Amino acid sequence: MGILTGKTAVVTGSTSGIGLAYARAFAGAGANIVLNGMGAAADIEKERSAIETDFGVKAVHSPADMTRPAEIAGMIALGESTFGSVDVLVNNAGIQFVSPVEDFPIEKWDAIIAINLSSAFHGIRAAVPGMKKRGWGRIINTASAHSLVASPFKSAYVSAKHGIAGLTKTVALELATHKITCNCISPGYVWTPLVEKQIPDTMKARNLTKEQVIRDVLLQAQPTKEFVTSEQVAALALFLCGDDAAQITGTNLSIDGGWTAG
Ligand code: NAD
């Protein structure tokens, strides 16, 4: 028996990176899983069936686009109709775009606010009635070190992540007496396929070795000079699902190698 046996977790943006690590950690603790996110159908099916065979739970994929509120509500409804409940909701889907503010494409601003911030509101809005009815729930939002500090050229991302931190606190207060916690996790640089893919281009563009790119470019802001791993982020999320974390709510938990300590 895992701590989530008999429960269902919906993880947005779980076809890749941190989201996939959350899904596999929750499945390892016994939860049935609603995967969500983009990608090639065959790749998604491979991850979905691996969760079932590796952990002996059930997993379905929702193709809900996080820019579309009705599809987000449909994703929650899929979890409830397939497995009987949505007990854990992780709002994790996210994109990035980097540009000076005066040139920032309006459609990129709108997409980042929709996917990185508004989708969490829509998911929470749809999942809370069922959680209240059952008297238990865990809502976890993936924020970022950028929910606490800014970097230049990331106006939309930093705004969305600061917004996630505010949404987390508000929802935590509203649900405090319902045995539903709401927290956000703020990673620094996490080793995901997205980050890994940037390395060869940066090596070429700056004439650096792989080690120099990692230390002097990517991890410049991270005092430990080491990446956070997706599995470390997922382990923290799993802790938040347990009884030991029942009194942790409304917090913003940093896992950033000391980035925001400075
Ligand atoms: P990733 O690119 O590996 O995964 C992003 C996921 O979001 C994918 O599954 C993708 O399909 C999904 N997605 C994107 N747009 C979507 C849409 N419109 N609808 C549905 N799904 C969509 O990225 P990651 O590094 O795993 O990032 C996950 C979260 O962690 C994001 O919120 C990101 O801001 C945050 N984060 C990442 C890092 C890092 O260094 N990688 C650091 C701090 C915070």
Please tell me about this protein's structure:
With 262 residues, the chain is of the alpha/beta class. The strands form two sheets. Strands 3-2-1-4-5-6-9 form a seven-stranded parallel β-sheet, sandwiched between helices. Strands 7-8 form a two-stranded parallel sheet. Strand 5 (137-142), helix 5 (155-175) and strand 6 (180-187) form a beta-alpha-beta unit. It contains eight helices and nine strands. The protein has one domain (8-190, 228-261): 3-Layer(aba) Sandwich (Rossmann fold). Helix 1 packs across helix 8 (230-241) and helix 6 crosses helix 7 (210-218). The model has no long low-confidence stretch (mean pLDDT 96). The structure holds nicotinamide-adenine-dinucleotide (NAD). The site of nicotinamide-adenine-dinucleotide (NAD) has 29 residues, from helix 1, helix 4 and helix 6.
Largest sheet: 7 strands, parallel
Total number of domains: 1
Instruction: Give the low-confidence spans.
Output: none
| DSSP helix fraction | 40-55%
CATH homologous superfamily heading: NAD(P)-binding Rossmann-like Domain
What characteristic shape results from the CA principal axes? globular
**How many helical stretches?**
8
- The structure class reads alpha/beta
Order of helices and strands: EHEHEHEHEHEEHHEHE
> Largest sheet, order of strands side by side?
3-2-1-4-5-6-9
- What would the CATH topology be? Rossmann fold
The tally of strands reads: 9
Mean pLDDT value: 96
